[in-house]
């Protein structure tokens, strides 16, 4: 059997997937890729082959993809410009004999009426993989619980207010750890070829409900202010966030655009994140973590 390749193995998702795979696979059956392979030293020390791979440099990918049979393609961070990066990775992998590509996508990425612009990159990548000749598995993640526990909860607790354009739209918040475990399951099990799995937690909650839970657990008030999309743009403008993906400064202070955030909120408001599925438990054999469990794990980071 060929090796399992993990792209972006020095990132948060990739590093967690790498550790999960090492619990199920021999080090010599794994190949971990990064633009900065020195960040993978912990895995190299265990006997894993760690290679340099730059998705912006197709020539670098030829040797990076050699000997692989399955690949976990973790979506890169550059919203708006990452489709070509993903295309380079897929084409190199298939040319080197990779037979199955597992991709970290977004829930309801295939729905044409989903207003979240982030879905455009994900669906375009799914289509590239589907047309590549390799078997595919799309892991369509809901919103990560960890993002709510940190990036949303911390400023909301500091300021006591949270402007929000999601209204009462519900989200099947999913722990990133459960998405990682599902990816590891798909890569190490049979029978997942040419399937798309919507990955969610055990329940769907609204942002106001999630913030009420944070407020209760922290013993501090949070007022969720329902605002429209234009007001949400003004809020992000005041923070200095770039409006469009094309305006994002590489390695700058804010790696996302307000277009991305506002349309994401719109998608939540319109019900595109409300799904609750059993895919995590079916593939991992364990029930997914609840939002409260993830809050408990991150509560120590909240302002006292």
From TrEMBL:
Domain NAD(P)-binding: 8-152
One Pfam family in the UniProt entry: NAD_binding_10
First and last residue of the signal peptide: none
Transmembrane segments: none
Xref: PANTHER family: NMRA-LIKE DOMAIN-CONTAINING PROTEIN, QUINONE OXIDOREDUCTASE 2
Identification of the protein by name: SDR family oxidoreductase
